[in-house]
Every structure is written in structure tokens, then in C-alpha cells.
Amino acid sequence: xxxxxSAIFAGTSRGAIYALAALGLVLVWRGAGVVxxxxxxxxxxxxxxxxxxxxxxxxxxxAFVVALISGGVLGGLVxxxxxxxLNRKRSSSVLDSPAMRSTVPVxxxxxxxxxxxxxxxxxxxxxxxxxxxxxxxxxxxxNGKIMPFTAFDLFVIGIVFVTLLATTFFFKGTGxxxxxxxxxxxxxxxxxxxxRIGLVRTLSWVISGVASSLAGLLVTPSANLSPYxxxxxxxxxxxxxxxxxxxxxxxxxxGGFALGLLVSFVNxxxxxxxxxxxxxIVLLTVLVIRPQGILGSKEVRRV
Amino acid sequence: xxxxxxxxxxxxSVKALNGISLLAxxxxxxxxxxxxxxxxxxxxxxxxxLEHPHSGSISWKNKSIVxxxxxxxxxxxxxxxxxxxxxxxxxxxxxxxxxxxxxRMRSNKADVRLAIQEIYQLFPRLEERKKQLxxxxxxGERQMLAISRALVSRPSLLLLDEPSLGLxxxxxxxxxxxxxxxxxxxxxxxxxVEQNANTALGVADHGILLSLGTVAADxxxxxxKADVALRAAYLGY
Amino acid sequence: xxxxxxxxxKNLVISILFTALVFFLSIKLDPYNQGQLSVALMFFIxxxxxxxxxxxxxxxxLGQGALMAVGGFAAALGILNLGLxxxxxxxxxxxxxxxxxxxxxxxxxxxxxxxxxxxxxxxxLAIPSLATRFESVFGGDVGLTIDFGNPPAWLTSLMGExxxxxxxxxxxxxxxxxxLFFTSNIxxxxxxxxxxxxxxxxxxxxxxxxxxxxxxxxxxxxxxxFAGLAGVLYGLRGIVGxxxxxxxxxxxxxxxAVLGGIRSILGALIGxxxxxxxxxxxxxxxxxxxxxxxxxxxxxxxxxSLLLILTVVLxxxxxxxxxHHKKRHH
Lengths: 303, 237, 330
Ligand SMILES: Nc1ncnc2c1ncn2[C@@H]1O[C@H](COP(=O)(O)OP(=O)(O)OP(=O)(O)O)[C@@H](O)[C@H]1O
Ligand SMILES: [Mg+2]
Known about the structure:
Strand content of chain A: under 5%
Largest sheet of chain A: 2 strands, antiparallel
Radius of gyration of chain C: 20 Å
Helix content of chain C: over 70%
Mean pLDDT of chain C: 89
Largest sheet of chain C: 2 strands, antiparallel
Number of domains of chain C: 1
Number of strands of chain C: 2
Structural class of chain C: mainly alpha
Largest interface: A-C, 55 and 53 residues
Structural class of chain A: mainly alpha
Strand content of chain C: under 5%
Shape of chain A: globular
Oligomer: heterotrimer
Order of helices and strands of chain C: HHHHHHEHHHHHEHHHH
Low-confidence stretches of chain A: 299-303
Low-confidence stretches of chain C: none
Distance between the termini of chain A: 43 Å
Distance between the termini of chain C: 26 Å
Strand order of the largest sheet of chain C: 1-2
Number of helices of chain C: 15
Bound molecules: adenosine-5'-triphosphate, magnesium ion
Number of strands of chain A: 2
């Protein structure tokens, strides 16, 4: 029973992080029509920045905020330096077909991932570093009994819910959120309504950058920091987003928790080597049975 | 005044507009009619900068607007209602209307609120359905919504592309009449593209007949309406 | 003479010239560069699989490394358990990869763009992890040991002493030539044209009566065969294991394909040479300002990633596109 409970708790706190990663992917997909494979590379880079600040005796929270800001800045730069010029380039025969139009940004994002990983390696070397937590990461003690979850787990889950609420409010309750939804759904009508869709796109890259560096900061204490550690989160985050529906914020969060539980149960009851296989099976099953994901809308581009 | 000179717009090798010149006077309704593929939509799309002209000039109130982005052109008071009930069906009615005013929400919140109220007075059916998704509206309601989205920006020039498309005659009449009232009461300038020549020429001050990307006739509306030979030659009825 | 047979003859001439050139190099180069050139030929075959899949038919795969692994493991199992010769093992590897490609294609035919990219990326991670899972069969993290063996007697009697790297290069060469010949023929055939029609406009292709899913699956199968061939040759250098076919291998091949020119056979060759020799080139070029080891380690990856971004943004057709372009102008 205890094993089962601790698998649930571990899965929930893991799932919270996958949910953040998935959220980041969904934000850019909805806002700019790109699945950003460089996302966790950006997160890795900003987590290194935080780690460097902490090593120089700045407080965790200062490092935390700086990392979020740099995550946002990196996201914005990716859009301004790579994706925008790519979008503007219409003349090339290689880019003419819709199939290639959706493929080429993927390749570009892989290039960005490569650059960020190489840069992190050059600046911070390859050796793995640990990363602190802001709160205790020992099992909580309630009534003298050690619980199978930690204060840090609660902290992570709390942050994810706050993020989800904040993004939902942003999308449903603010003008900028409306502008973002409109630009993603119908760029032409959005432009005719006076919405600056270029600006809106860049903003969705920035917000996604913040969300994913949050994921990076929260996952790193349990997985040492190296230029490549967060690749795994990207894979799982992608699967979570597809499971939940690539165009649904809530869906991506549900997908994240589902994947967290899956990974945790495979870890506890089976063997860690099977994680990828389990993910692959889930991914293929969802794509075959319900390609739009749990909460995705049918009208989403069947790509 | 909207002044267009020698406008040429191409899609690849297709010349959709082949040297168009026209004037649309302020506070008047100018209607553009012509057969399918004549270039009517392309004309409006070029004015609102959705398409880039190959050559020629467009000026509004004596300022050239060629080369500006669509976002910028809206801010100059030119609102375009594109062909085919262009609303965003996954957004609510209310959101579709708000969307048209987002760009001036911060600078003039009070007026935006007023504008939205006026729109609901104009189309009470939209207010009744404001929480509904735009995709669930009827064709006529959707066209009202598309026009509202444009009007809420308080344009001085309205580009309307076939508002009658697929609607029952009664609804068409109502929409056209609303536009006509707006023009007469507020001094709005309207460039109205229509297949339905009779209705359009009935309310318009001036008529422009397009054929294969060129202006075939440019006459006062009443005169064009009366010219049976012209209509037989270009519209087939 | 009909157009088709003139193409066929031109392809034959190019293939012969290609073989002769590599053969000449195999005599001139030192063992290290013989080994590098042989890897470049293996990558050439692997990149051709991307040219067929992405360049010709518009589908993306980040998982070509997984198909290479399938080829490698199939051959290793054949050699170690059934005692197959390397030639039979190579045939077995291609067959296994074709089969895997069929399965993958059936799943992938419904997907495109980012969905396909993400799914194949997961596949690239999942397949090699099977090796660790079924350790007794696939040899776990270490993998299985196979190699090209010794050069046959007739070759040594013909050429004198043949070193291991040279043999590796000479054994790879016929397969690279075959891949070259096969690819250029298929791209110039009706089949190749139908793939391009699919890529350029799926709706139109379907209206014209093309069976979309079948065609996509077929491209996947063919492309997988190429990947499997590249994979077995790559494994025959010594080890078949998860560390030989990491996810970075898939990405490296994609990088090579894009840099060289994703629609061009010449581009595939240029891309393969580029990604294989880039580290050496960078080391040679940076020797004068002797960067720290930390920087030197990551310099090739940095440069190839930067080149990848620049290519995609500035010249999506890759190097070969530039070359073709010049030719047409003159
Ligand atoms: N996106 C496009 N790409 C290529 N050609 C186009 C495009 N849009 C329009 N055309 C062509 O330009 C010409 C003019 O089209 P346009 O839509 O302006 O006609 P229209 O007068 O609005 O017709 P309708 O009454 O049917 O709406 C047509 O020949 C059309 O085929
Ligand atoms: Mg039209």
C-alpha cells in the first residue's frame, strides 16, 4: 500500500513538471503554430544561469526570478532571430509545400537546441551539477509518520496550479489573451481587427519560455543538471501535450499528470528501462484512437 | 476620399487587377460589381494590405497607404469585412466584437464600451447571443457579427465584401439598409462589393463595374442601374 | 533514345565515376581518413534515406537512427546466432529494416509535421532502450560485437596488403554506389514524381487518384531499407549497441541532409562528408588559437548547429541548391 501511495505521490509531483513542459509546448503551438523542440534546451540554459547565481551565493529566489526572465528572453530571441525570418521567407522552392512549411520550423528548433547545448557545454562544462530546492525535500512528517511525499513535491504541484490558473485567466480574461487566441485561430481576421500578430507571436514565445524554464528549475533538483538532462522532459512533455490535445491548455496539464503517473508506475512496478517503450505505446495509441487528444478540438489541423 | 490609380495586383502569373483607377467619395456608398473572378475581392484585399500591389497607388484622405501593414491600416480608420462571414467561430460573439476594438482598448476604453453598446442597439440579436460561440450563429447573424467586428473600430471607411453571400433576400435587405443608415447618419464612407447588382445599386451613390481586372464602367448608381445593355453585356441579366 | 534510358545511362556513368574516385582515395588516404571516409559513405546512405523521405515526399523523421539500430541488431544476431557471413547479415539487416519501416509507416501515414517529428523522436529513444531491456539477447548497454572481418584473399592477392580501415572502406563502397544508383533512378522515375506530387499538394494528389496512405507507407519502407543498410555497416565497425545509435546520430544525419541539400543526392554526399569531417576540420582550423578543451569539445556541435539554423533560414535548399542554381544560370 505504501509503495502504491508513494508511486502516486511521486507521479503527481513528476506529472506537475511534465504538465509545465507540455504547457510550454502548447503555448507556442497555439500562438505560433510551431512545436518547439528547443524548449527544454532553453530551460536548461536558464537553469544553468540560476545555478551559477546560486553558486555565487545569491539567494534561491533571486536566481529563480532571473532564470524565469532569461527563459522568457531566450524564447523571444528564438522567435525574433530564427522563426520570424523563417516565416517571412516565402520565395524558396523548398518551403513551398504545406508539408515542408510545418517541417522546417521543427528542423530550425533542433538547430537551436544544438546551439544551446553546445553553448552550455562551452560555458559550464559537461560535469553534472546538483541544484538546490527552496524547501525541504525530505519526506513530510505528519503525526510522527513519514509521508511518501516531500514539502518540495507540494511546492511543485502548487506552482503548476498557480501557473495553470494564471495562464487560463490570461487567455480568457485579458485583451492580450484574446489577441493571442484570435491570431492563432485566424491570423487574417486578427490582422484585419488591428491585432499585431507578429508581436503576439513573440509574446507567446516569451510566455512559453518562462513556463518551460519553470519546469527546468523544478525538475533539476531531482535530476542533476547537464546540457542534455532535460531532453527527456521534452519527450515526455511532447507526449503529454499530444495526449491532452496540442491546442488545449487544460488538456496538456491533464496529459502531464497522466504521464507522470505512468512513468512513476513503470518505475516502481516494472523497470526504468521500459519508460520510453511505455511512452511510445501511449503516444501511438492516442494518435491512432484519438489524434486530437483528450481535450483537443477536432478542428485542430490534422497534421 | 479614397483614390486609386493604375492599381495592378498579381497572384503569381495571374493579373487579378490590371490597372484599376477609381474614386470613392467621403460619406457616400460606392459599389463595385462584376462577374465572378472580376477582381472585386482582390481590390478590397489590396486596399487593406492583405495583398501587396505590384504597382499603382492607393491614397486615403490624401495620404498614400501602399506598403503599410493591415494592422496599421485599421488604425487609419479603414475596416475590411472580408468575403464569407469572416468571424472566428471558436470565439464567442462578445469576444469577436471585442477583438475589433482591442487596438484602441487602452487609449479609449470608455469609447470602446460605448461603441459595443451601439452595436448591440444596431443588432439586438447579437446581444441576446453574446455568450454563444460565433460558430453556432446562423449565416445572417454571422454576417452581422462580421460587420460589427469592423464597426467597433469606428472606421471612417468600410470595405464590405459581398455581405449578401448565401443569405435570404430579407436578411440581405436588412443588412444593406443598416449600412445605408450608418452612411447617411454618421458620414461613413462605404466601398461595397456585391454580386447582387440590383440591391447594391439601389442604395449606392456610385457604381463601378469591374471586368477581368479592369474598370468597364464608372457611373452614378442610378444611371448604371438603368443601363440594361451594360448589365446584359457584363453581368448576363 | 528515350528520356528514361538517357537518365539511366547518366546515372550509371556517375555511379562508376563515384566508385572510381572513392577507390582511388582508398589507396591514397591514411588509415584514419580511410576510416572516416567509410563512415561518411555510411552516413551518405543514411542521409539518402532522409532525402527520399523528407526531400522527396515531405515526411520528416527524427528516428532514422532507430532504423539503423534495427539493421545493426538484426545483422549482429544473424552473425552471432546463425553464423551468417557479413554479406548475408547485411541482406538480413535490410530486410529487418524494411519490415520495421512497414510498421513505422503504417503508424506514421496518419501523421505529419510536428506530430510525425515528435513520434519518430520517441521511437529513436525507445528502440535502443530495448537493447538494455532484453539484455540477454541484445547485450545490454555494451551491445554485441561484430566486425568486417579480414579482407578476402583475392583482394589481398590483387592489391597487396589491405589494412582494416581500407577494407572497411572498400566493403562499404559497393553499397554506397548501389544506394546512389538506386536513389537517382527512383527519383527520376514515375514513382519519384508521384512522391513529389504528394509532398507538394496532398489534396491534389489524392484527387488525381493517388492512394495517399499506401504511397506514404511505401516511401517509409524504402527509406527504412536505406537506413537499415547504413546501420548495419555502421555497426560492423565493431559494436552494435545503444551507444552506437543514440538520438544524436539521428539528429546528425538530419543536419547533414539539410546542410547538403535535402532534395539532392549530391547534397547527401556533401552533407555526409561535412558532418563526418567537420570535427577534424574545426580542430585543424582552431589549432592556431588553441581553445581550451572545454570549448574545443563543443565547437563542432556549435558550428554544425549554427550552420543548420543559417541554412534553414537563409538557404533552405542547402549547399547543393546553390550549386545547381549556379549551373542553371551559366
Ligand atoms: N490566392 C489566390 N491565388 C491565385 N489566384 C487568385 C487568388 N485569389 C484570387 N485569385 C484569382 O484572381 C482573380 C480575381 O479573384 P477575386 O477573388 O478578386 O474575384 P472576385 O471578383 O472577388 O470574384 P467572386 O465574385 O467570385 O468573389 C480570379 O481569377 C482568381 O482566380
Ligand atoms: Mg470575391
